[in-house]
Amino acid sequence: MSDDQPTIALGVLDGQHVAFAMLDGEILFQCTGASEEAARAAVLARLHPAGVVDVHSESLAPATGASGAAADGADAPVFELRGGAAAARGRPDGDGFVVLAGSTARAYGTDVSRDRPLRDQLLARGVLRPAADPKLLVFSQAWRFSSASQAGGVVLDRNCSGPNAWRIPGTDQTLRDWQKTSPGAPPRHEEPR
């Protein structure tokens, strides 16, 4: 983590959701709100997109191997997921589903999202960054998720059935359909839901 990037923290204090940004141990500002979304939105509105941070988490891994090689599944077609103004592109691989850099995600979804903790980690790490459109976040790098459903949940900020939601652009063919009919498709993992 560079010294000139703030760390964002989210939490609950006395029943209020709190978000704050710190730089070199000094609190730059803090916001409280009735909801986690309100507090998070207030922090993101005050940060320049390049100011979203890198925090350490062993559970997060970019979509490249230790050697920096591209993710497996490069022969798989690119799938698309749209929701609101968000438009994400990705492809399955043997270890899950990779969302490509430059894809966009909804900045605000529903109050029910099993993938919200992971989404918040990706925001804090700078993998997801605020876009010019305040309704969107952008993937600053490709990212491998454990499943298409987890990828869709982060993109849409709500629960998602990935195999049915991701589609080949310009067709009605879903990821599920493609996996059933393509002999070279990466193995279909059971959705961990």
Automatic annotation (TrEMBL):
It comes from the Bacteria. Residues 163-193 are annotated as: Disordered. This is DUF4357 domain-containing protein.
